[in-house]
Design goal:
The chain is α+β, with helices and mostly antiparallel strands. It contains 3 helices and 11 strands, in the order H-E-E-E-E-E-E-H-E-E-E-E-E-H. Strands 2-11-10-4-5-6 form a 6-stranded mixed β-sheet.
């Protein structure tokens, strides 16, 4: 093979390798990947409860200052709020200060009372008074139009005792 043919071919390969280095793409900058949503800030042991049962609400602390509940009639109750905001006999179920680090709150549906946030009423009232869906609201401000600013948990409540499980043996009699 003649050297004259090898030199241009080697030069071509060398210059191609050099230009590839210049043409190497710059690092690709992608937009930030969406962050996987963390666990909800509030969830329940069960979303169906009966009269006299314990409702266990779980939280991912630190918690916001307020927890409220809306009954099936649309009435709003404050459950957690700063202690100094209470008036008369209106008291938080748990004060905001104590609630901030809590990971669980137990509510007995038979005895649970909260601030009905109604003008002229100065004592806590029973919350679980009829069957239906109760919505628990968690946030630093519960009176907002944007629902994304609060966490909402829906719980179905039956205002009667939980039915006894049917016994398969008794069904055979």
């Amino acid at each position: 093979m003649k050297l004259i043919h090898v030199l241009p071919a080697a030069g071509l390969l060398f210059s191609a390798a050099m230009s590839l280095d210049k043409m190497a793409p710059s690092p690709l900058i992608l937009p930030e990947a969406p962050v996987a949503e963390s666990a909800p800030k509030m969830w329940a042991s069960s979303t169906v409860i009966y009269k006299g049962e314990l409702l266990k609400l779980y939280f991912k602390a630190p918690n916001p200052r307020y927890l409220g509940v809306i009954d099936p009639n649309g009435r709003f109750f404050y459950v957690v709020f700063p202690k100094e905001e209470g008036a008369g006999k209106l008291k938080p179920f748990v004060s905001s200060e104590r609630f901030e680090t809590m990971k669980m709150l137990k509510i007995n549906t038979a005895t649970f009372k909260a601030d009905p946030y109604t003008y002229g009423i100065v004592e806590n009232r029973p919350v679980f008074t009829k069957s239906g869906t109760y919505q628990f609201l968690l946030g630093d401000n519960l009176h907002v139009d944007d629902e994304s600013a609060i966490t909402i948990l829906k719980v179905k409540y039956k205002h009667s005792a939980r039915p006894l499980p049917t016994n398969d043996i008794a069904a055979l009699d």
